[in-house]
Amino acid sequence: MSVPELLERDRELTLLDEALHAAQAGTGSVVLVHGEAGIGKTSIVRAFTRGLPDRVRLLAGACDDLVTPRTLGPLRDAVRGSGPLAAALVAGDRDAVLATLLADLDGGRPTVLVLEDVQWADDATLDVLRYLGRRVAGLPVVLVVTYRDDEVGPSLQRVLGGLGGGSVRRVAPARLSRAAVARLAGGTAATSAPLFRLTHGNPFFVSELVAADPGGAMPATVVDVVLARVQRLRPIERAALERLSVVPSGVELPLAHALLDDVEVLAEPERLGLLEVHPGVVAFRHELARRAVEGALPAGLRMQHNARVLAALLDQPDPDLARVVHHAVAAGDADTVVAHAPAAARAAGRLGAHAQEAALQEHALRHRELLDPAEEAALLRERTATLFHLDRMPEALQVGEEAVARAEELGAPGPLAEALIALALVQWALVRPAECLAAAQRAVRVLEPGGDSHQLAYALAYTTGLRGSLDQDAESQASAEAALAMARRLDAPPLVALGEIALGTARLKQGDAGGLADLRSGIEGAVAASAHVFAMTGWGLLVQDLWHDGRYVEAQRFIDEATAYAHERDLLVYLDHVGAYRLRLQAVRGEWEAAEAGLRRLLAASESGAVRHCLPELARLLVRRGADDAPDVVEEATRFAERADNRYANIPVAMARVELAWLAGRPADAEGAIAELTARTAVPGAERARADLLRWQRRLGLPAQPFPGCPPEYAAGLRGDWRTAAQGFADLGAPYEQALELADADAVELMLDGLRMLDDLGARPAAAVLRRRLRRRGVAQVPRGPKPTTRANPRGLTDRQVEILRMLAAGRTNAEIAAKLVLSIRTVDHHVSAVLQKLGVTSRRQASSACVELGLAGANTRPSADITA
User: For domain 462-574, which CATH number applies: 3.30.530.20, 3.40.50.620, 3.30.450.20, 1.25.40.10?
Assistant: First the structure.
């Protein structure tokens, strides 16, 4: 059968040709070819690559619909053979793969790299796509990526969302017109009308129907079409086709020879257009056709065919373990699953494909009765860490506790300590500090009888951080010193780096400036040793300590440094912590809208303890903005701080409560928070927080004086030198604090300057306090300030109520709104009732209509269910 004519695809091919010409001139791009199954993505790519000039290199690979995707499967396909990239793939070193790929593509020769069907891609392949997507503009490369846009999962969506700018081109093939369908059918638009109605112009479906038996009835689905064509084959040809159908990828010719008695039987299926033969590979013309044939097989026969593929794969010298596991699962061969899934999982983990690692671990653990006890215990330990990386914390906790129990049964100290540390990481993420520290300390006790070891040095360093997170600062420093000394005795550079990081943060937290040098040395050592997790940990702790010390310029510099390092090595999973501090700095600098939106997004996306530590800062920001949900978020942040039990969480929450009391004019409400803050800040390293507390005590009418070591801007305010204090905060880039100092001034002119700043910031509660103060001072012309939304909106809705009304109109439930806005459901219930009352309606459907009438509805609004309030 001849290749179907490619119609109505000139625009798509022109765009690809333009991308190629730019790449030949040294400017690369990503071309995203997306659409439904059968729309012709592969046909467009093949037509483009068939016409490539001789000097342009083609590398092409595809993702497969396996039970667990092959790690870096498309790259393995693209570079079959020898060479540095092939060697890096075999070695399974993630950093080496990325570096070698970049060097290979930057070699001067123009390259077209095709990654097909990335909706089935593994995490490591998505890492490659993200990594190249940010660098492609400077490479002589066209990166062609195809995917089904109706099967895009969250991981791929995040990668696609990160691709933007002029280096990204999008190709979305449309369905064929009636004229094109008629041309393919060899008739007129009138005679082909039934074909167009049935296929809706899907090119694959059209070509299949055109190739169907013209004398038969019109099939109803593409599956019927494919199976009707299969029935035209001889039994021996059908059997061959069925054997190949269980392989969700191209079948290499050696594998095809192993599966078939005679590959010559494939000639007729190829002639009919069911199969295509490429150099070294036999494949179905379309994945839809393969699925149709496989899906029609009886379960028993499907298992037999998978068993035959499995045996052929295992006969190969170096089989792809992900394919082995796929066919073992499909064949019901549990022994083979447990024999190979653990090794496949470890290989995936080394390359950063944690979702695939987790799936392979799960396959093995489903047959744990067949596993050696030591192997089962190791898998449970490894799965705990994998689930931690995937932010699946409740599941990780359950597996981690089971891993500890299994290790205890085996009695070996090393595996038990590993299980305890893995469990401690999860407990830390779930904000269970006491349990976390107990697990880490137990790991140390288990290892100590064996003397110096890498495991013990790591456990000591990790215990340092946990003690510090519980404000056990002196004990934290002692652990850090022991960890560093042991790492140096072991001559283990990564552990030396971690020890320096642990010691540095312990010293900085206690106000010892020398800790900065330790931290910098540790980060540099971790970078030199390619210990990425240690390096990112160091930057996170350094930024945290500098931020809490008010050293905002330095904190920003190290945030930028960490971000550049993570982007260069595609370590974005580790950026949430430093990213949270970037958002906090935005809040300090008065970029409140952006900071609030970013913090809410971050908190909504993760339950990790590292991220939840920014909840107290969000609470304080919402208090300053006068947000409707500020009291609820303060309450939520208070509960979190009680669990976290450290001053980095407790202090900002207590400060938010103090500030809320001042803004409300109820000083007595701050008494409990002041007592807590007095105790929390009476330690070395908390001087800035202590000064902040005293400043608020002064505003509440309580006595407060500077102390030795008090930061100068706070000391000036406490002495009544408002002008110097305001200038100090201006120098720090903290406009809200600057405005409050001006508000406290004796001079009306300075107070009015402070009022303008508060209005510009959107600090409505503080501005209202200052307006009342000015009026009491007898100022006749107090600026009214910006008109609030409630005055501009004839229905009297606040900003938050407008936001919730839009979500109601979009059909979101109260629970969905609560999750999106990081509110309690009770708070949302209250807002919804208030919205309905102000609109004068009794149902969500009526509210949706009112939203449209007010011109507030967005493009994605859909009618809400008519549920009365």
Answer: 1.25.40.10
